[in-house]
Amino acid sequence: MPPNLNLQASLSAQPLVELREVSCGYGDRVILQNVNLSIPRGKVLALIGTSGGGKTTVLRLIGRQLKPLSGQVLLDGQDLAPLDAQGLYAARRRMGMLFQFGALFTDLSVFDNVAFPLREHTRLPESMIRDLVLMKLNAVGLRGARDLMPSEISGGMARRVALARAIALDPDLVLYDEPFAGLDPISMGIAARLIRDLNDALGLTSVVVSHDLHETFLIADQVAMIANGRIVAQGTPDDLRHSSDPLVQQFVMAQPDGPVQFHHPARSVADDFRLGTRA
Ligand SMILES: Nc1ncnc2c1ncn2[C@@H]1O[C@H](COP(=O)(O)OP(=O)(O)OP(=O)(O)O)[C@@H](O)[C@H]1O
């Protein structure tokens, strides 16, 4: 094999994002402890787990809105922590982000919402911006909605516009925080299919934080489950479905009781209701 092919093969085998022994927190409170996570290039990785477990925190680490207390977050093998403003700007240019509810600018049209990052971050002429915006809107099925205002479109359409905006700058990596929240089942299915199709058509790598296990398991190549500040399971959706770990089972099967207790710790029922002491 010629040497440059060897190099290409080894680069594509390297994960796009890697967390190595990462611990982090807010103030004195440690949220993640010694977390290791590999996000394979070209794949859709879902992050699931109990509320407050640290899923959004992982996205913040990857976007370097947050720095680890120890350990490293690597993008393409490069540690994000020491980057200066210029390096960080370049790294973030490679990421598209769709944060909870993907809020649109309400006073800008659908077209201008998608054009916004292109106008902010490039010096492309308006004629080229127009073509790029229409291409992105076409990819999410909304080329015909370009002149509408956010108040004139449904929640599902708004989420798709936010998706078009997240991919406007042709990122390598897209981070989705709860992309299905508040959508009806049909819009949810459309959004999930779009995330998968755009990932494959544009050669992206996607990280999806979601509580909607059904949609997420349909589109993810890999699922990582976070609980109590640790990755408790990682594998294909089928690996997690068949996991014998009681916590994974409880979560995936949506059982109210298991390692995570339904009841807040309390005195015994017998004590509280004075059972056995009544005449
Ligand atoms: N800016 C912050 N300052 C202080 N604590 C925070 C901050 N952001 C998050 N936390 C706390 O860190 C923990 C992890 O939060 P995070 O948002 O990462 O969890 P999550 O798994 O995404 O939760 P959910 O599924 O409910 O969105 C939570 O206990 C949360 O209260």
TrEMBL record:
The keyword Ion transport does not apply. Keywords: ATP-binding, Cell membrane, Membrane, Nucleotide-binding, Transport. Residues 17-253 form the ABC transporter domain. SUPFAM superfamilies: P-loop containing nucleoside triphosphate hydrolases. Pfam families: ABC_tran. The keyword Signal does not apply. GO terms for molecular function: ATP binding; ATP hydrolysis activity. It comes from the Bacteria. PROSITE patterns: ABC_TRANSPORTER_1 (PS00211), ABC_TRANSPORTER_2 (PS50893). This is Phospholipid/cholesterol/gamma-HCH transport system ATP-binding protein. It comes from Roseateles toxinivorans.
